[in-house]
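sorry for the late reply, my laptop died twice this morning and i had to redo everyting from scratch. anyway the thing you sent over, i finally got around to it. pasting the sequence first so we're on the same page, its 163 residues, then the predicted structure underneath. double check i copied it right bc i was rushing
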Amino acid sequence: MSQQECRDQLLDLMRAQNECIVTAHSRLDEIGQALSENKIDSLQRSLVSPDLGFEQLQQLEHQRHALLQRYGFETDAAAQTACIDWCDDANRQLASLNRDLVANLQSLQRSIQLNNILVGKGRDRIRRSIGILTGQERVNQCKTYSSSGKTEQGPGQRDIAIA
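ok and here's the structure:
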């Protein structure tokens, strides 16, 4: 097994991983945009096929680990860097592709975290709205004021700012 074969295989794997990440990131951006703008139709369209390609990304990662082991390297990040140094060409195309891969993974992670925050905020807003409409949950135990100016905390009553 030669350095060139290792380089070619790593190039193919990293390109495929970057492609999966970019696709997942754009899907998450669509979903995040729909969530932040409360566009239910757009959200439903983007969730018709909820597969973000994470399984394929995981399979590619397993293939990369197998490739590293086949060439006598461990599967951690330091060993991958050593493998890239060993088989990369003068243009350092593998090293550049690896930097892109890491940057894309970090961007994907931020996108996942952002969407998680948006979903949590939407869920809280829905829970508070249902509580207000049904009178079963008093949001933050807000007080209302009677015509005499005294505070009252009766069932179904809520602060004017929340109403």
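The mean pLDDT is 80.
thats about all i looked at so far, will dig more tmrw
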